[in-house]
């Protein structure tokens, strides 16, 4: 085993040998690696959540634009019979919104 760094009291309160209650340099290195890996993973999760929040905001904005465009088409259809080119223009605008 590596160098003894810290001896922890055993359940009875007496110090024990290297087999129980002793932290070695290798133990400390393992804990440091575990902490580092946990930190890296947490950062990855944090960044993933941020990206998802951004995508959700973009989708919400696109949905609002789509609702506005659909409302305009509905109003147009209710007020008159639009020409084919007007309908194609409106559907192209809707398609652009959906392709976000």
Would you give an account of this structure?
- With 100 residues, the chain is mainly alpha-helical.
- It has one domain.
- It contains two helices and two strands.
- It has a two-stranded antiparallel sheet.
- The protein is rod-shaped.
- The two termini are 59 Å apart.
- 0% of the residues are buried.
- The mean pLDDT is 80.
Strand content range? 5-15%
Radius of gyration: 32 Å
Percent of residues in helices comes to over 70%
Oligomeric state of shown chains:
single chain
Number of helical regions? 2
Give the H and E element order: EEHH
Given the C-alpha coordinates, what overall shape results?
rod-shaped
Q: What is the total tally of β strands? A: 2
Q: Class by helix and strand content?
A: mainly alpha
Largest sheet: 2 strands, antiparallel
- Widest β-sheet, arrangement of strands: 1-2
Total discrete domains: 1
Global mean pLDDT? 80
Q: Give the termini distance in whole angstroms.
A: 59 Å
Q: Which stretches are poorly predicted, pLDDT < 50 over at least 5 residues?
A: none
């Amino acid at each position: 085993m590596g160098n003894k760094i810290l001896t922890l009291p055993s359940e009875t309160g007496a110090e024990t040998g290297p087999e129980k209650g002793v932290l070695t340099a290798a133990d400390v290195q393992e804990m440091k690696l575990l902490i580092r890996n946990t930190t890296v993973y947490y950062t990855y999760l944090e960044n993933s959540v941020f990206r998802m929040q951004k995508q959700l905001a973009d989708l919400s904005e696109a949905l609002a634009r789509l609702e506005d465009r659909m409302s305009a088409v509905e109003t147009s259809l209710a007020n008159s019979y639009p020409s084919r080119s007007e309908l194609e223009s409106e559907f192209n605008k809707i398609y652009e919104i959906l392709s976000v």
